[in-house]
Structure formats: structure tokens, C-alpha cells
Amino acid sequence: MQLIGFIINPLSGDGRGANIWKEIETHLQMNQIPYVSKITQKAGEAKELAISIIQEHSVKKLILIGGDGTIHEAASGLAHLQKEGIHCSLAVIPAGTGNDFAKAYSIPKQPLQALNTAIAEKKKVQIDLLRGLNELIAVNSIGAGFDGMVAKLTNESSYKKYLNRLGLGKLSYFLTILRVFATYQPCTVWLEVDGTVHELPHTWLAAVANIPFYGGAIQICPSASPHDGMADIVIIQSRGRFRLLPVLFTVYQGKHTNHPAVSFYKGTSISLRTQKPLLIQADGEYAGATPLQITLEPASITVIC
Ligand SMILES: Nc1ncnc2c1ncn2[C@@H]1O[C@H](COP(=O)(O)OP(=O)(O)OP(=O)(O)O)[C@@H](O)[C@H]1O
Fold it and tell me: What are the DAGKc domain coordinates in residue numbering (predicted)?
């Protein structure tokens, strides 16, 4: 059997990552499955660990134990190597709070089932990537405005840790959405999609999606597909706060799409200028502030699902 590389974020899901790794490592040893592993020691490390584990051990399959933040970082490492002609498939054992990536690729929630899926390699897909400036890569989505603020405040909140311990991690995103909803001030954004500029006043949210979900299975962009060579863009505009309440309560099921405040675009080259700097999230991680420029890179990494 080929050597498998593992990267583990022990703190993902407030410690679930460490517990899952114990279970997985025992299983690997009992079944004499050859592996090498690296455990993240600090935030932002998974990219370098992915690069080093693949280069040092020539692994062709990398399994991540973590949440969307860990996948975000490691995918950036894979994309970097891909450009140098080094290919490695990516698999995931979900251990995070939101696990949107795992949901998008129907990866089992149960750790040993997810491991067996990764080992069996019955289905592999080439997925598109969203590439921003300064080596910013996203596999799920990049968003500015309301969702940038939600991602930052959720990751900084004490209730995320607490709710994770109760197995209610996804609720932490919803609580932050309510917090931000009460105070958010929309502004004008200029969205350019493949050369056409759209002036969009009173914009609350501008998100570029590669998969339908974010923020713990919110179906922000139900039509987004990581295999179509196109990025889907969702814009939410509203002069009044309370006009958006129906969107807030239907977006989890993806039933907000016909609401007049919501519009969609598709393209491969996207830029966003904003009346004031807006916070950016990339795969749920804080990624600076606008302006923003994104290019879709088709079929860039291989995911086992
Ligand atoms: N050893 C570590 N110490 C501190 N932070 C870490 C460590 N390892 C990884 N991180 C950081 O933890 C953050 C969250 O990781 P991850 O997204 O995997 O878990 P999560 O937040 O529980 O899940 P989700 O993104 O699905 O909500 C990432 O920004 C990552 O850089």
C-alpha cells in the first residue's frame, strides 16, 4: 500500500482533531497502513507542512484532519506544488466546526468511514480554485462585507469553543450572524465580472463561491459547482435591515434565491472595489480587507470524495 501523509490540526473543532487522530492512528497501526504525519503547532502552518510532507516523503495522497481553515491552508500548499508539476490528491477527515468542504464532497462525518473513503479512492474529482492576490487561495469561497465580519467574529468568539464542546459548533455562526445583522452598515460596491462593471449600492454581502455552502452549511449559492470552470458570485443588497429578515431565515435551505435583494453572477475574473474597506473571509478565515481580485483556476487540485 502507498504511503499516506496526514496533517492534523489538533485544535480543530475545539480538540476534536486531536481525539480523531488518536482513533485514526490506532487504526493505521493495527492495520499496518504506512503513514507519515505532521501535527500543526500554530495557526497558519498547514500550508508549509503540506509542502514539506509531500516533498520529503513523495506522498501521493494527503489526508487532512481538521476543519475548513486547515483545508484552506493545505490546499494552498497543494496548489503551489501543482504549479511545479508535483501532484498529490487531497482527502479529508472532518474535524472542524463548519465542515463545509466535507459536505460539498459528501465525505463521511464518521472518522473511520472518512478514512476508508480516502484509502479506497473510489471517486476522485478535479476541483476549481479561487485565486486572489498575494498567494491567497480558496477552495470553498471568498466573501467581503457581512460574511467577512461574521467569519472574523465567529473565529474570535468564546461561544464557538463552548458550542463546539456541546457538539453545536454550527450554531456559533448563526449567533454571530444575528450579532452582525443588528449593526452592519451596507455600502456601494463595484463588482467587475469578466470585464463588465456593476455598480451595486447598499451591498451587505459580496461572495464568490466555488461550492454551495459556507459558514456551517448555509446554502449561500446553491448553483455553485467546483467542477464547472466558473465562479458563482452572490450579492445581497438592501436599503433596510428588516427587509433582509426573510433572506436570513431561508438561506440555510438555499431558498433565498428569488428574493429581490439577492442577485447572482458567474465568471472567471472578478474584482471588487468598495466605498469603504470591507473585511474579507476566505474559506471562513479572515483574509484582510477589500479591494479584492479573484481569478478562477479550473480543475486545479484532485479531491478524493
Ligand atoms: N496548533 C495550532 N494552534 C493554534 N491555531 C491553530 C493550530 N493549528 C491550526 N490552527 C488554526 O486553527 C484555525 C481553525 O482551524 P480549522 O478551520 O481547521 O478548525 P475549526 O475552526 O474548528 O473548523 P471550521 O473552519 O470548519 O469552522 C486555522 O486558522 C488554523 O490556522
Answer: 1-136
